[in-house]
Amino acid sequence: MEACLPVALDRGYRLPVASRATRPSPPRRRRDGERRRSELLDAALRCFARRGVLGVGIEDIRREAGASPSSVYNLFADIDEIILALLVRVFDALFAHIAARVRRTRTAEGAVRALVDAHMEWIALHPEQGRFMYQAMSLEGAGLRPQAREQLVAAKARGLQPILEHVQPFVERGAIPKWPPALLDVVLLGAAHEALRRWLAGASELDPAVLRKRLPALAWKSVRREPG
Question: What is 80-223's CATH number?
Fold first, then answer.
């Protein structure tokens, strides 16, 4: 075959070259971009798990991912954008898990208990993501730019929507107080948030398995309507 090539070329034959048709299509480029973005966020999570949110820069994440500078900056302008994107990804996964549990309930008590238990269950199963979430949320007010905070609020609202829709009939019947979502979060999940933060920081006595047996019942007790 190799001996035939000079003859073929002399006769005007040209070897096929890559054409525009063989270049990656827009859907493939989009998939490649999504894959690179996911890999960078995975690398960011590993870095944050080792050094904390405040101890990591965008160059640390680039090296962890084995990515070129251009591939990073094509997707994220700075470390704040990476933190925001990872936080939104964590919220999406957490809220999807909670919503799946809550929407299977048929009573106000069941919904409240499922809400609290599902939150603790997910954090216990994903401690690195939970630790990052709580660290990043503590910086939300002071560290994020206004536009980033708006995106974060939108992500929370999107995740909460199916949960709120499910519990709305219980609110309308008076089985759950008609409070703003932020107040319900404090009352129902405040103890769970604090206990999980401490557990993630090393307080082994606050075992999520034990918390899950107690805090859902306490949350329901805090909002249930007393008879009479």
Answer: 1.10.357.10
